[in-house]
Specification:
This protein is of the alpha/beta class. Helix content is about 40%, strand content about 20%. It folds into two domains: about 5-140 and about 290-335, Rossmann fold (3-Layer(aba) Sandwich), CATH 3.40.50; about 145-285, Rossmann fold (3-Layer(aba) Sandwich). The strands form five sheets. It has a five-stranded mixed β-sheet with strand order 3-2-1-4-5, with helices on both faces. The chain has a four-stranded parallel β-sheet with strand order 7-9-6-13, with helices on both faces. Strand 11 and strand 12 (about 255) form a beta hairpin. The termini are far apart. It binds 6-O-phosphono-beta-D-fructofuranose. 6-O-phosphono-beta-D-fructofuranose binds near residues 129 and 284.
Length: about 350
């Protein structure tokens, strides 16, 4: 059955992510084949609350595949935290004349999409996050780019660590899940990887460094997720290290700085010169890898066909080598965290 003349909107919400432009481009290019009209909604849900939109044609998505960020802009606006926000989104989508919306985002953006879908709003989701913590999809685009950037940083830090006989701590992103730390740490040959899923005691960290010293290794590479917790004793649970006390519209605190804290503790307790590097937004910026461009393109094309087939309230997902779809509900109800088997792969090298 051929569906004619749809007008579809798309938005990108939450933290930006390499590969977003590949998704936007694919949605527009595929829609053109169906003679559909595409509307870009600017700055995530904010663009539907305030009506900031623009038409997207073949020329508007030309030359964007290799660019980082998102040509539509993004925000962490949560309509459910605004007075009458949900109503505004629904009314404004009608005003614009949208037949369907493709929401490209992580747990927060898709959490909003999920609530709207439950009200009968015609929305499909595309999974995006460098953290790779969305349930129901093997990978999200942006993750591979972030991992490669972090691995490259670890490789560079390795050589200076060795020359100076120092402990080097590299802090990567990952609020609740340690996927970036695990992949970059394993690929970069880290001596220790600290992730939010596995609280670790200071003594265990010092033991690894001591074991290394005993066999003549005078430097250590420690990769830590920003959301990892370190406990100083059996009695005291570890705390996340916050940059400040502010909370965003989705209830998230700003993490960052655990590497500095750890460096201070290690230097004090061992006397080993220790340095911290916080990679921060370098991991999210710049050109996407080939993998992320291809994955984003496949998700975008698939999302258009989800609209065509009326698969609303569902999200495109990668399962093995195939793109399929799952209820958005399944993707946002739980985070996908690092399991014991994978953690044990990394642990083999903690010495
Ligand atoms: O959600 C992706 C993410 O990159 C997290 O890893 C990180 O904690 C957060 O975004 C940082 O957000 P912001 O760019 O708003 O500081």
């Amino acid at each position: 059955m051929e569906v004619k003349n749809l007008k579809i909107g798309m938005l990108t919400g939450g933290g930006d992510c390499p590969g977003l432009n590949a998704v936007i481009r694919a949605i527009v290019r595929k829609s053109i084949l169906y003679n559909w009209e595409c509307i870009g909604i600017e700055n995530g849900w904010k663009g539907l609350v305030d009506i900031f939109v623009r038409p997207l044609d073949i020329n508007s998505v030309s030359g964007i595949l290799q660019k980082g960020g998102t040509i539509l802009g993004t925000s962490r606006t949560n309509p459910y935290k605004l007075d009458g926000g949900e109503q505004k989104v629904i009314e404004n989508a009608n005003k614009i004349g949208l037949d369907a919306l493709i929401a490209i985002g992580g747990e927060d953006t898709l959490g909003v999409a999920n609530k709207l879908a439950k009200k009968g709003f015609p929305v499909v989701g595309v999974p995006k996050t460098i953290d790779n913590d969305l349930n129901g999809t093997d990978y999200t685009f942006g993750f591979d780019t972030a991992v490669n950037i972090a691995m490259d940083a670890i490789d560079r830090i390795h050589t200076t660590a060795e020359s100076h006989h120092r402990a080097m701590i590299i802090e990567v992103m990952g609020r609740h899940a340690g996927w970036i730390a695990m992949h970059a740490g394993i690929a970069g040959g880290a001596d220790l990887i600290l992730i939010p899923e596995k609280e670790i005691k200071i003594d265990e960290i010092l033991k690894v460094m001591d074991d290394r010293k005993k066999r003549g290794r005078t430097f250590s590479i420690i990769v830590v997720s920003e959301g990892a917790k370190i406990s100083e004793s059996d009695q005291k649970a570890g705390q996340m290290v916050l940059q400040d006390q502010k909370i965003d519209a989705f209830g998230h605190v700003r993490l960052g700085g655990i590497a500095n804290l750890l460096a201070e503790i290690i230097e004090k307790q061992t006397g080993v010169e220790t340095r911290a590097t916080i990679l921060g937004h370098i991991q999210r910026g710049g050109s996407p890898t080939a993998y992320d461009r291809v994955l984003g393109t496949r998700f975008g094309i698939y999302a258009v066909d989800m609209v065509k087939n009326g698969k609303f309230g569902r999200m495109a997902a990668l399962k093995g080598a195939e793109i399929t779809d799952i209820p958005i509900d399944d993707a946002v109800s739980n985070l996908k965290v690092v399991d014991d088997d994978f953690y044990n792969v990394a642990r083999t090298f903690f010495r």
